[in-house]
Amino acid sequence: MVENRQENTKKKILDSAFDVFVTNGYKDTTMSHIVRESGLSKGAIYHYYKSKKDLFISLIDHWEIYSFPDFYSKSDKDEKAEDTLVRFADTVYDVFCTKPHVFLAEIEFWALANKDKEINDRSKILYDKILRLFELVLNKGIRKKEFKEVDAKIISVELLSVFQGINWFCLFGGSKKEVKQYLRKSVHIIIEGIRSK
Predict the structure, then answer these.
(1) Of the four, 95, 110, 127, 152, which is 20 to 30 A from 167 by CA?
(2) CA angle, residues 129, 130, 131, in degrees to nearest 5
(3) What does the radius of gyration of the chain's CA atoms come to, in whole angstroms?
(4) What are the beta bridge partners of residue 195?
(5) Residue among 188, 78, 75 at smallest CA distance from 144
(6) What values do phi and psi take at 195, rounded to 5?
């Protein structure tokens, strides 16, 4: 019961911090902003996070779970690798439609990762995890003869680049229809390039 309450408090802090960091940017966010947004006391926030930076680093993990909960919760062993990749594209599209600020948060992570080694290291762990996920899917496709023998590591980077292209649409505009076409066509082009003949 206490553990649930603590987890709920941490989630409330992280959700509030997420919104504030996206709106204000890291530099212009203060703990007071997060206190106001969360409705919790400053002491409650400092009980879990010793500094603004500590909270921001925790948001990197929270970003992944908050952004793509449905994708990570599904594990159909019989699903074709191609279908898994298309499903991921659909999940990214759904997030774009319902929570576009997720991608703006990613841009904030990038900006700080360029200046702060600790944030860079933590971000690298996240992206390495995503790349490994793609590699597992691709290697499954190779084993099942869906895909030809390819360098799964390189194709994983290509897939990640496609999905990060959504950040461009969030910054500079793009209709839902354009984003859906972009994702579907880009993933389709990659799949066609590696499909077993």
Answers:
(1) 152
(2) 90
(3) 19
(4) 147
(5) 78
(6) -65, 140
